Amino acid sequence: GSEMCIRDRPKTALKMAVISTTAATGSETNASSVLSNDVTHEKRSFFCDASRATYTFMDPSLLYTLPKFQRSCTVVDIFSHTHERYCAQHGENKIADECSEGNMRVLLEEGPKFIKQADDYQAASEIMFAGSHAYLTCGTGGAFDWATHNLAHEISGHYPQFTHAATITSLWPAWAQYVCDSNIPRFAQMARKVFGIQEADDQKAAKMCIDATIKFFSDCGMPTSIQELMNKNISEEEIDALVESCTFHGRRASIGALKKLDKQDMKNIYVMANQ
Fold it and tell me: How crowded is the C-beta side of 181, counted as CA atoms within 13 Å?
């Protein structure tokens, strides 16, 4: 994790020109990357401003060769990146909220078109820009959550045959249901602004938001539980190994911003997602 290696963070790096051949991570605009250790099964985020791209060339037609599954992964991954910045406990502001809500609405509208037809230039353009936009203005001023990403990184680290976006969607429903009561108005606002749900009661609207998001992931062809991801349930021992790694073997006490999740919370979410 970045908090563990600040002293070793490089101050300079070779200048890079990036030609995007996929969309989702926003690497063309941000300073973040993910490193995997195939021996320890660890996936760790790394943030270094020196590694930002100097130039980026973005041509939507380069996305045409992505297989359908990867197009699905692209759409839901961008949605999750936007949502991780949107679902924070404090620090929200209206401009950032509008940016996030707009980004998610575009993904709902254009995502299915992009998944269905690889060479739909307009849809590919919208998706490519949404991937960058998630990192440019969405969530500005807030404390980003990233709990789902942290939990998902452990699954794709321990089971590398499962791609990142699929591990995100397999955990998101359990995470959302687990943390929703910590900020019901946030999920209710998303229900109304993103999904157009007309429900005055915040509690009901929040549940409808979670249900609508799960349906969106499923409609994109993505799994929404560990069982659906792996076609089996994992054991308690496997869950304990995921939790131990997610705590950085005791060096990280909690994850998340919307709700601080400790070691027991992490296990509870894995157990819920495993049912």
Answer: 2
The amino acid present at 265, given as its one-letter code, is D
- Considering only CA atoms, which of 266, 103, 107, 105 is closest in space to residue 175? 266
Report which of 262, 37, 3, 6 is spatially closest to residue 153, judged by C-alpha positions.
37
End-to-end, the C-alpha distance of the chain in Å comes to 29
- Of residues 117 and 25, the one with the higher pLDDT is 117
234: which DSSP letter?
Answer: P
Q: Over the stretch 168-212, which tens digit does the pLDDT of each residue have?
A: 999 999 999 999 999 999 999 999 999 999 999 999 999 999 999
**What does the angle CA 111 – CA 117 – CA 118 come to, to the nearest 5 degrees?**
90
Of 268, 46, 258, the residue nearest 151 (C-alpha): 268
Q: What is the mean pLDDT of the chain?
A: 91
The residues, ordered by sequence, that sit 6+ positions from 24 with a Cβ below 8 Å of its Cβ are: 73, 74, 77, 78, 81, 131, 165
From the list 84, 25, 30, the residue with the least C-alpha distance to 53 is 30
- In 187-203, which positions are buried (b, 16+ CB within 10 angstroms) versus exposed (e)? bbbbbbbbbebeeeebe
Each residue's pLDDT tens digit, 118-174: 999 999 999 999 999 998 888 887 788 999 999 999 999 999 999 999 999 999 999
Residue 45 pairs in a beta bridge with 34
State which amino acid sits at residue 156: S
pTM score over 0.85: yes
- Is 104 in contact with 83 (CB distance < 8 Å)? yes
Q: With cut-offs at 50, 70 and 90, classify the pLDDT of residue 7.
A: low
Q: Are 70 and 118 in contact, with CB atoms under 8 Å apart?
A: no
